[in-house]
Design a protein that fits this description.
4 copies of one chain form a homotetramer. Chain A is α/β, with parallel strands linked by helices. The first copy, chain A, folds into 2 domains: 13-253, 3-Layer(aba) Sandwich (Aspartate Aminotransferase, domain 2), CATH 3.40.640; 254-344, Alpha-Beta Complex (Aspartate Aminotransferase, domain 1). Helix content of chain A is 41%, strand content 16%. Chain A is built from 15 helices and 11 strands. Chain A has helices at 13-22, 34-37, 39-47, 59-70, 84-87, 92-97, 114-121, 151-163, 175-182, 186-189, 224-230, 239-249, 253-273, 295-303, 328-344, and strands at 52-56, 75-80, 101-105, 133-140, 167-172, 197-201, 211-215, 279-280, 288-292, 309-310, 317-321. In chain A, the strands form 2 sheets. In chain A, strands 1-7-6-5-4-2-3 form a 7-stranded mixed sheet, with helices on both faces. Chain A has a 4-stranded antiparallel sheet with strand order 8-9-11-10. In chain A, α3 packs parallel to α12, α9 (175-182) packs across α13 (253-273) and α13 runs parallel beside α15 (328-344). The longest helix of chain A has 21 residues, at 253-273. The model of chain A has no long low-confidence stretch (mean pLDDT 97). At the A-D interface, β3 of A face β3 of D.
Chain lengths: 345, 345, 345, 345
């Protein structure tokens, strides 16, 4: 039973069906196909505003290409110190921006502390030739800690961006889980709150490999086509990327899958909280649960076949991610085992 | 009826079946799955030598990442002036090498002229601080003109590489078609002839999106993992890339598809040559035919629904690519129409 | 007696005097000093238009930083195949543009053939995601062959730039020699003919190390300060760079030195042409002479202590550069020796 | 009276004399001159070990080119959060490394806290494809806070580098002041303590513009020539750079100037400490004094013509740098004024 990540799961059946359906006949390559041409429209409906949308295959590509449109090589991009772009992308943002500096900011529960951001922006870098030029802030929604920014929290950061001539990027590898968790509209959580570019994730949410870079300010995307090709991210048989994204939007599949994953996480968190000696570290607002479990208990659970990531060096905090296809039975089985092992001490 | 490229076709049924088969259960992400772990072994068998193999999703990524392992930013990479890396990758090789210079070389029928390469290497750049340092040669197999390098021609270029401390890369987006066309072993056409790194293409040959970067000198690959991640080319659900590649190698599917495509091209070329007023420009050695067709004839063929790429500005040379799934009926239908229109003058 | 290059000479006495004069007292660092603040004005007078001017210390820095303002990483920069930026800057233009492609164009006597440029621009790259985007043309004035573009020739290339949305850069490492050779105004040879950015060279013309990047369209310079610092080219004691440039402009020193160098080259060329068996390859329009000299004669001249660069692999073409401080006696001495050796056969 | 920085001063007379002396006759360009050829030897004597030495003109160039030899684009470079490379070089290190990540570490008085470094290295990045690969640590000697690392402190950091397969760079823009302050040998403070590459500063110490990149492990320098040229940092008239460096080493000028500057700083600090209401923030170990001065007092001192940098946003900490040519009279004059103004309250 595997709670290590959402990407240990395969694809939802609807996604495989979409690939099969897209496989008939010939189609123009490199995005000039029927599926790809629908994307702008479909996402514009979803977000209730005109968008320019570009499919890519990985979240790192989505983030790094988006940031490449926002920051020059002499720019600075501000992000949470635990964010994927700072820690887990092997310098892809630096690569695609031509060498921008990622400024790592602190903040509780995975969210950038607005005061820390304000302090960082108050150093007097803007316009001074010695310093990297503030170009963008990137926030993660849902965060690496399984929490979410409320629309107001997003807007507060966006306000700082505007005041400093910067753009706001949202890494939405788990955007669906955030929308499901907050029960707000995609628009409210993005452009209405001041987000300029969104990495809209589908892979973790049940696709094979598909992400959409969604620009709410079309002019920011002017160089995207060339940057994507230069990055090796232009798919010749693009229809297979676009078909995955369209399938996700079809009949709200993306939200249905995310709600399911979130519900499992809530059940898991509730169950863990009910077990003596175990606890949950941060609010569970998406599909991740960070649980405090004594090392011996965690060890025995692993020995029984339950898989989950250790999260801190001390080893008592563990991450449980509920992928879209975790079942109620799996949750129940884990909780039974956890209760037994916790009782055994 | 569509002869514009091989990537206007979808995927072979075996590929879709492989995706479906790979979709069961959870698997470790980022390449630590059963499918991905088989790749080194499977390619080592295919090439009859120990290889290190890395799946990526696009040919541009394969080429650019491979060249990034071969050339520093102050290096020079020599390639044919019509090659994909020079003309069609929007500076991806420059990007992934950190700014290496691509030196464009002439040569008939898409193949680097060995004398031109020798002259370029004779300029005295090596070790001189003013000049980019010769680092690699990249050849395309089969070429953009639908021709192939014989093993001896590859070896002659490899000899120049060795003599100048350079490495040899082969862009094998249509490697299968070249092997099928030459009827030699994969080994004979690569490492035995002096190739260090191969971009082994599967996408054009019937995959959805899968290429393998194959290192015949394992040490050259030491930084590949980091370069791939930094480029945003590490797939979280890697099993779906690897499963495509394994399906290609399974029971020789890759060669069967390529032979079929090549056979169609031969039939197409034979038929064109037999039509008065039409001719074929270069030897047809893979799955592409470059045909001289009078503009009026070409125009009427297009009006009848046949699709093919104009290849030169003057407009009398046209490219026909036979994808893996072009049928004998399609070839016959085109030839009938061409004969009719050519006769009409 | 040394004709190898202009940079084998030291500095003009006026330059050393200017350094000494600038050495009194303290001054704000990094360009906020009295000397540096005068530059914009002084160059605006010289060029009879408003300029933004940035001092750097090397010609490669001037060129590469200028091109970095003109081309993105997915851009293409067109230049002569023998130009310094293509051949002699170890990929600095690629580095500072973030990986732009330098497209090498042919052309007689070191000058870009306008038809070749037009053909290159006619390939249909503009706006097409597969190809590098035409961004700039760079011409060298005077060229590597010691010839010059007339204002009309510059304008013809500028016209192609405008028609294709590109900018025009002029590498003026020997701009002074070109102005002196053509006897036109600096304005006529630059912005009035369509040049957007000029690398104004002083080092070869008698400075220690000083070049000015001159922007005729101020908006193009908006990121220059940051690019210069990021490139490590911002001098803390900037006054010493600026003082060299101001000394060059003072009382027309730059033109006086260049006229002197050009006059020596003319005398040298005239003398060589008068010697049986020797000849001059290209028009001598600046301070360089390319002479055909039989290998045995060249060898004996070298043995007698005359120094000059072999220019082609065959060894019969040789470059003679007259630095600002070559004397009439040196020219006469060389010509006497050359006549003797040529007569000796 | 100007205490803003060391680079507000001009050049020592010995430096100007060296330039004048180097100006006679012609010399091979680009480093193949008599002065440049002496550098390796002269520095090898100074450091009592074989060095490879490369002159450049700015400290940022020295640091960034050195780090470019130590870290690939997918690498991580660890440095103090207030260091010049992190804060004041507008992403030059990112640029020259091809996009490495600079990891900013805390530490009192400008020195990296060894425990913080150890913790950062304990995150498990090494060999894991998701993370930037630990490549180098860079320490500043003397630090931005005017303090110095003792040889033992350097060795402790070098030990962590060795244990993690990393190299150690020292930014020695004020290396002379550190050596003078510690009264140890240059060898003891560098390679004997584990430093691999040193940016040896001369500009702040009385040169016009000259720094030396000193490699104690010659193999690390193998690509330096090409990187320097690619960065636009190869001077054609190199003799003028090299002559400055040789003049600095001649008869110990570099140490004499640094000792003088340090003595002034000590006198300044002693005087400030003796004034009621004023204090000194960090140990004064080089040529900088950071003084706590009430805002009103500081304001009145500025109004009287004394210049010094505010150091913190609150405005009570101020930086005084004693350049090589600050005089005893200037120190005395400032201290008299400060005493008067402090007494006035």
């Amino acid at each position: 039973m595997d709670f290590r990540s959402d990407n240990i799961s395969g694809a939802a059946p609807e996604i495989l069906a979409a690939l099969a359906a897209a496989n008939g006949g010939t189609a123009s390559a490199y995005g000039d196909d029927d599926w790809s041409r629908e994307l702008d429209g479909a996402f514009s409906v979803l977000f209730d505003t005109e968008c320019r949308v570009f499919p890519v295959a990985t979240g790192t590509a989505a983030n790094a290409l988006a940031l490449g449109c926002l920051s020059p090589g002499h720019g600075a991009v501000f992000a949470h110190q635990d964010s994927h772009i700072v820690v887990d992308e092997c310098n892809a943002p630096e690569f695609f921006t031509g060498g921008a500096k990622l400024v790592a900011l602190p903040g509780a529960a995975g969210k950038i502390d607005a005061a820390a951001l304000e302090a960082a922006l108050g150093q007097g870098w803007l316009g001074v030739q010695h310093h990297p030029q503030p170009a963008a802030v990137s926030i993660t929604q849902a965060t690496e800690s399984g929490t979410v920014y409320s629309p107001d929290e997003v807007a507060a950061i966006a306000h700082l961006c505007r005041a400093n001539g910067m753009h706001l990027h949202m890494d939405g590898a788990r955007f669906a889980n955030a929308v499901a968790g907050l029960n707000v509209s995609p628009a409210a959580l993005t452009w209405k709150a001041g987000v300029d570019v969104l990495s809209f994730g589908a892979t973790k949410n049940g696709a094979i490999a598909a992400e959409a870079v969604v620009f709410f300010k079309p002019a920011l995307a002017d160089s995207f086509l060339f940057r994507r090709k230069r990055g090796g991210h232009l798919f010749s048989k693009m229809r297979f990327l676009s078909a995955q994204l369209l399938a996700m939007l079809q009949d709200g599949l993306w939200l249905r899958l995310a709600r399911q994953a979130n519900a499992r996480a809530q059940a898991l968190a509730d169950g863990i909280r009910a077990i003596d000696g175990l606890s949950v570290a941060w609010p569970v607002q998406a599909n991740e649960v960070f649980a405090q479990i004594p090392p011996t208990v965690a060890g025995r659970l692993r020995a029984r076949g339950f898989r989950f990531h250790p999260w801190n060096p001390e080893g008592s905090l563990h991450r449980f991610v509920c992928a879209f296809d975790r079942s109620e039975d799996e949750i129940a089985a884990f909780l039974r085992a956890a209760a037994e092992e916790a009782a055994a001490g």
